Structures
1.
Amino acid sequence: MDSLKRVLRTPLGVGALSMLGLVFLLAIFAPLLWGEAASETDTAHLLAPPSAEHWVGTDSLGRDLWLRTLVATRLTVLLALGATALGVLLGILLGSAPALLGRRIGRFVTAAVNILVAFPGLLLCLFFAVIFGVGEVGAVFAIGLAGAPTFARLCHTLVAGVQERDFVTASRIAGRSRAYVLFKHILPNIAEPLVVQATIGAGSCLLTFSGLSFLGLGVQSPAFDWGRLMNEGLNRIYLNPLAALAPGLLVITAGLAFNLTGEAIARAFNVETSGSWVTATAAARTAARKVPAAFSAANTVPREVLRVTDLQVGFPGSNPVRGVSFDLRPGEALGIVGESGAGKSLTGLAIAQLIEPPGQVDGEITFLGMPLRPDGGEDQRKLLGTSMALIFQDPMSSFNPARRIGEQLAEISRVHQGMNRRAAWERAVDRLRAVRISDPQRRAGQHPFEFSGGMRQRAMIGMGLMAAPKLLIADEPTTSLDVTVQQQVLDLIDSVREEEQVALILISHDLTLVAERCERILVMYAGRVVEDIPASALAVAQHPYTRLLLAAVPTLATDLDSPLAVIPGSQPDPSTQFSGCAFAPRCPLADDICRTREPLLRNAIPPIDDTRKKPGLGITLKTSRMRLELNLGGKPGSPVHTGQVACWHKGEPLPAPTLIDDDLPDETLAGVGR
Amino acid sequence: MSTLRFENITVRFGSVTAVNDVTLEVPNGAVVGLVGESGSGKTTLARAAVGLAPMQVGRVLLDGVPVSRHGPARQLQMVFQDPYSSLDPRMRIGDTIAEALPEVARAEREGQVNRLLELVHLNPARAKDYPARLSGGQRQRVAIARALAARPAVLVADEITSALDVSIQGSILNLVRTLQRELGLTMLFISHNLAVLRYVAQRVAVMKDGGIVEEGPTAQVLGTPRDPYTKELLAAIPGR
Amino acid sequence: MSALENAASGGDFLSAGARHWVRFALRRTGQLLVSLWVLITAAFAMIHLIPGDPVRSSLGLTASQELVETTRQNLGLNDPLPLQYWHFLQGLVTGDLGMSITSRLPVAEIVATRFAATAQLALSAFALSVVVAVPIGVAVAVRTRQGRGRVLDLGFAGTSVVLGSIPDFLIGVILVWIFSVSLHLLPVGGRTGLSSYILPVLSLAVGPAAILSRIVRVEMLSVLEADYVRTARAKRLSATRIHLGHALPNAVTASLTLGGLMLSGMVAATVLVETVFAWPGLGSTIVQAILVKDYPLVQGVVLVYGCGVLLVNTLVDVAMTILDPRSAVIR
């Protein structure tokens, strides 16, 4: 009954259900109240037009048509429900046959259903009506059977969707029967869409039934439903239009009642999953605190490519980026690292001016001397279109599937550089060659699906090189690629940077990967930069989060005798408000100051001659140092942290890692939305 | 626990050969790592072991006895990559674990479920929760507990950390090592990440294009790789 | 995936694209043949599935036993089933659909004279609904994305649900009442010139147009969220170019499957609408034939309708493959 409440919470739900309730009340009570009056003949008023006595007029036997229309509700609704029940039952049987009977029989059933479903319901209906004969029972069977293929197909799609999921496989491996899996796992997970479809199906059965009766193929005299009454009324439409329109109106009402109820149920359950985003208030946004600019003008080259000051990104009810500042010199490679939900991707999108309402971007972004704003004009569009290139995580979906790769590259030159079709195409082919795609002439004419993942990512880079980019923003560009391909794509980015003096922002969850490719790293946590560190100084990272992150991931140098570091709990959700350090709940060093006052980015503490001599230093540092020595090709000597850290306990030794349970009682779901 | 042996396994889907004549042994009480890129056939091999992929040729042996080729075999249990898909959102996690238990008395069931939850370092009070209340790492622990509930001879773990956030991965790997040490678990551990395998596996097999190109003790395969493909894989690891 | 890999590994004499086409053509033709066989067999079986003697129920109880026998003989109903099936297939190949029991005219002739009227109706209604629904769906999607334009969203949802829920024959009745009975603007029925097309076409088009515009809107909304639209925005293309050049083709492709179902649904819906408007097409023919139990005629019309539907479905699949070559590989 919880679900009923949920449906009734929306105006649509209330309206639809009351309409449906009214129809059912009529179906139950109308024959009891007016059944006799509706069949009373009034010889004085044969075929009478509407009057005060007979609102809709009378038929050829002088019977009151309004009462007959009301009384007909029961038969109409009953027949429609009967046909629906038959169709739904058959549909579920056929649709779940593959899950129940195994692949071979299932494939046959599916193929048969697919053939039947290609024929419109009404046609199937007529076919069955011929076989079962004219009349109401025949029509119930005809409509039920005709509706079954559609429902079966739907059911099959839903079943297949659940069947693909691993919990079904797990249950099968655990030795459970197909029937058990169907009833315990599959059906409960598709119940809601089935109810929605059955409700809407009832609506269309009612309409189809009225149609059949209207044709004279359904209910036969002396019985009558709305369709029959319309059939009789149509002949006299010039004399008494209401005779046909009144039952028609009820058909529409009842059909709508079913359809809207289905719609309302569907919405009620969608709202649960995606609605909070839209409805939540924007109040939370204002609380975001400001963090001072990370860099003074002193250590920057005069003309930086990009300057970001106090960047904030907010959505109604959450603020995933809470004050990020940095700047970028020409040709510099900056890595942004963090777990999912840290705000690193949104930072990239905000810089690229790709956040759309209801998302809101605050702070200053200056790109090549031009302040960027969301409503920037033609100049800004041209600048970004030619000078800023983006690469996204999923090369499979980042190209338009319907258009040739070459066209998609050429579009940039045609729009922003005014090249003609031919010149732009030549440029596209040239750029594909530049990103080492073999046979670029032929490849340019192909569609994205004909490219492998690695090739698509190269083409994406090639697209960024169509004009003369000064900044490349790459958001997890290799995460979905195989390791050997990853290497090639990253090498390509490196060589592009070198050849064309392009600055790079590389966004990744992989600290090691970023350390290898970038000169500087911003470590983000809960929407803020917690450490800004030269890649060469990772071994002496001073923020506990950075250090734990390094120690949590095994590398080829990890000590095999001790457990990996564990960061208990999970990152706070972007909607949470907190005072103090966002990492405090998970931090082994946290104390009262951490929990109440927020640490700001400050210069890292001066380097100590030999970190290894510091007492109580855990395995974490040792591990990172080993990696670092690998990074530098085994070069000895202490790296120096010249960046900034936001921590009250920066550089303090961490306790040795233990096997910590991540089962914290108040743990909220990690920022992984699926 | 017992020895799992793949003998000359070939799996074809239509005209595509996913696994081509693979022979591999997972010795009793050992963790064998299987590494390879997507499409190399490593997941198909695992699915063939638990009866989810059709084997055209070959057999899967447990202590020398063939595992049924038709339908799933309880002695082999699997943990999947995506913890968001591997638990039924409509089932309490206690019931999910209980479902995999061999037929036991109802009274005993709760105790068993609690014991299993403790084994994977989860609070037994969690048994009443639905998966939506659990984080990715916790879900993966539940999935491991369910697999252990069936008292499997061998556990197959298919990329069980790659869908998790980096800060959580470590805890699952620690758990795998603890379980192996304490229960003497025999395990086939599939991953695309050699560093992860180095941490949990005693032996490593490298798979490419449906075949195994190199197999041996972990230290040896990673330290002195013989196959060019293994060398390429090692070279591709960032930070090396 | 196998098709993709084979194709990607380089064609010897066929380009990869051409291979997709060949594979697609083969598979689609196979599918069409199977469907056609099912249709023909179902039409043949129909007469034998009717309980009792179809000839007797067709001619009525008063007909003499001799007449029934001769009719059975003429229809070949006394032959063994396989032979009847063979004759039926032979007839189809030569264009002989048998004789109508009631009118004693060849079914093929009746169908031929009425086919055009129905096809015109269905095609014009389809064209009208597409022309109206696609722009509306696109415009509403662009204006209501990400929670914008709540009022427009609600208004559109309400109107389209209501219009989509009214069965076409009822729309027909309402239109007749407004334009013929009350305003005397348009003829109430018959096929008597251009003005007589307006109401039947409208009644066929309104419902599907409402549904199609909803579908286009939903598809467009989901396409606008796709990664490649983000790529297009990252290329700093104008909004028009993004919406019409990148989003629309994909949204239309996705809507096309349903558009096809809609068109074949329209073919069937002519049955009802023709009855409302006394339209001399196949629809009114089949209804009459069913009522008077003229089974050979029913059989013939079912075959023609079925073939029409199969043709539409095939055309839609071909169109889809041209618009989105990927679909030839995936499906």
2.
Amino acid sequence: MHEDLFLLQNASFRFPEDAKNTLNGVSFSVRQGEKLVISGPSGSGKSTLLYLLNRLYPANCDGIVGGEIRLFGKQADEYMPGEINHRVATVFQDPDSQFCMPTVEEELAFTLENLHIPRIAMEGRIAEVLELTGLSALRHSIIQSLSSGMKQRVATACALAMKPEVLLLDEPLSHLDPFTAQQFIIWLDGLQKKAGLTVIAVEHRLDLWDAFFDRELSMGRSGRITADELFQPKNPVLFPERVSAVESSTALAVDQVSVEIKNKKLLSSLSFEAKRGEVLVIAGPNGSGKSTLLKALCGIYKRSSGTIQSSGIGYVPQSPEFLFLAQTVEKELAFSGTSSPSEVAELLDRLALVQLKDAHPFSVSHGQKRRVAIGAMLADNHPVLLMDEPTSGQDSAALQELFALIHERVQEGLTFLIVTHDMEFAAAVADSVLLIKDGKMTGKFSASEVWGDEQLLASHQLLPPKGADRYAGSFA
Amino acid sequence: MLKTWKLKEIVLMSLFGVVFGIVYLLAVHLGNIWAAAIGPIAYEWMFGIWFIVSIISMHIIRKPGAAVLPETLAAIIEVMLGNAAGPRLILSGVIQGLGAEAAFALTGYKRFNLAIFMLAGAGSAVFSFVYGYFVSGYAALDPSFVALMFTLRVLSGMIIAGIGGKYLADSLLATGSLRGYAIARAKKGDAGA
Amino acid sequence: MQDLLHEMNPSIKFVLVTGSMLTLAFFFDPWTPAIFWLAIVLMQLFLSRVNWKLWCLMMLPFTLGSFGYLWTTLVFGADDTSEILWTFAGISVTEEQWKHALSLSFRVMALSTLSLLFALTTDPVKFVMSLMQQLKLPPKLAYSVMVSYQFLPVLKDEFIQIQQAQRLRGVLVEKHWWQRLLNLRRLLLPMLAGAVRKAERAAFAMEARGFTGAARTEFFRPVTVTRTDLFMAILFSSVLVGSCAAGIVLSN
């Protein structure tokens, strides 16, 4: 006989600033040992729902809760601050903002101190959870020096140090590349089997999880549950097939480019060309020099030798807002004064930004920010566009939007160089792939020859795209 | 006092302290070693930079303590960053913060407009000047020179901290990122009225 | 021996340094700050493992500042009736003014050396932990500071990236630094907007791990007060009292 851990009946939630509810009529229960995933588009209230289960809401946003929420058989609002967090632990999405102490050991101790564990017992608990999670070797490591994947494991270890009954996961993979994410899931699966935890996750990239979950709760845009069913392993996001728009004239010629900063060789002697209308994906392990290459091409970093020939290179950083200087979208495009007002108006129209032209560039959605950034680069006369990790942390709708954006632009004769770890996305957009490792170029390959070569991809810490045959075939 | 504060608000204030710490470290401080040789007056006109965190935080959070706490946190962080001025920053941080806090307390934390922010900037300047008068021994200087320093510092507090702080917090509000904070709710209230 | 200043309890060190600083403010003779300054340099020499190259580099602006004080006090010193020592370019300097000028300059040197002593021998994390454990800084404040400190490398990196990106858009590096100050607003906006997001995430992560701001009952690594601290407190106080006494005797 299983007891319900959580029971929600007709629960609703509204932020005090909003007129409309974020959650409406939500009813479900969670039983011990379940592995439940809550899915849905961004804005469907799935994270809000999660925060109602660990009591971060309503207190943190003065939100208004309706209906009934029972946690471990007790009314949610009867819990003291912090009380529930001993039994419900959470791992969040951003590996960079979950730690307040310098080393792994001290971070674990911070958690145990919060629970008022006696000092003599702390040592044992720390050793035990490090053993359980296989992180013993990292005990004295500085957290900020670890990779994103390792940081997420440390965050999980901190959660488990509390010996919780339920583990909540708030999009834990969104800042990890697919290769690292897959390793994290394998690790977590082993951990779950050992510790027998109840897991509730919010996730938008379900394809990476294989068969980890046993139940799926789908949320719709109106903040209602649209389905509650057995979890089925998901296929990756499917992009439309696109016809290459590569033209014959060269848009970018890179010859023997090297970058050396503070006597450290970051890139050695790269040479390649890109045509008008070409989409070139740049891929390789973390720290291999991909971002350095982009920054060298657009002139942020000085190259120590070599030549770059192009009619103008623009750059869109991972956070497009880093580029923004003006108070409205329209002024943002006009900032440099390179384009005439009528050219700016035409660009706004082409990028579907007319409706947003008076909006503050910081206040629009992430996908719109990227369009504004591209617009600004085009207004500055940069027909070769470099994009740094545009796929990171994006849900499937955002990826589709990005796909369409790139596809439309190359029809206009623009050239894209895109750094990404997401091989499904790469397979859908790329005409060619540039592989980099340890600051050296392995080669520029045509897309169709790369996707089938599992060995080549693995040596660059990349997963072959699912359904690689389809892509290899379509280019053949 | 801390009971009414959400943790995210306190973290926000100390993060602002880090941001300004970095800005100061990377953008302002370096080129200015030579200004030191000009003597104490060289820094007077830019003193307002030190007070700006108080104004921004109070404008956004609007709770008692929102002026003195961020200055204190920012000072502790400056010390952690290895600022050579060391522990004396903490004391001066608290005192400056109290100066701004006094201005907001005078109005019962009810009004938040440009005049109050400039008054708060001036308050920080006055408090910090009295403290500086004592610690740096301005008593040994000619009164008219002291008066000049004082005027410069108060003006800097009113303009850089008061006007600049309000401008920055308002720009931040325009970006839409302050949802859920008192400043955003107040603005909504205005629009509704 | 050379570990003493490093091993000291940071809060005790903080109180001693701040106390000495406030005490010095009551003295306007040149001897007190001068003797105290020398004593602090000697303490650093024998009781710490300071990188002296770095020390000199960091002292440079303060030394310049001390000259600034010297001439400011000479030129703009308060008038008095004591004997005029010398006159130069229409500015006459009295005996009192000269003493005050020297005193203030030595005070700048003494305070700066004292601050450097603290900065170069204190571990920042231990300092905050000690503020919480010895001086009762509320945990909410202490851990907020800690979590912000962890963001330092991320924010520094962001700052540089924003600067690079904005330069690419045609924002120039201004010559005059008041222009740079005005341009800072553009750099600050994305930094501050990012800080708002990060603050919420960090606070949620802390609360999700049971942090409520309540006083802690036990620490994994207590920061202790030991006999070394008693010894150092006595040493500091003796140096301070000694310099003050010597100053009073010598100036009469």
